[in-house]
Amino acid sequence: MCATPFITDNPRDRHCSPRCGKRADKDKRRALERNAFVAPVNRAQVYERDHWTCQLCREPVMRHEVVPHPQAPTLDHIVPLSRGGTHEPANVQLAHYRCNSIKSDGDWPHASAALSGDRRPPWPPLPLPGFSRIGAV
User: Fold this and answer.
1) Is the pLDDT of residue 32 over 50?
2) Which among 59, 41, 38 has a CA at the least distance from the CA of 123?
């Protein structure tokens, strides 16, 4: 979850801490409750794949913040589980806690770019609904 490198003597350890393990278990449990397809999703790999950039607003994510901080990293399901989405690497992306909360299980204006596999950030970065950019005129 946190992308912290760790060394262990136990080959069964998949997470750096119990907290990281609980978070991964929660994601899997939510998907199974909705009868969604579940594949292993490694948060650290998703975060690195997305270059620590929110895929909804295209702004950098604060790596060391934790939820409920608005800029904490979270996994966002591109097609929400509640709408038949799957829990697999192809259907998850990095999002700020704030952005993910705003999106909820609804649509984001530029979700189609993420669905098409286009992970290049648009220019200029997309503003969040209801938020103005600092220094914007």
Assistant:
1) yes
2) 59
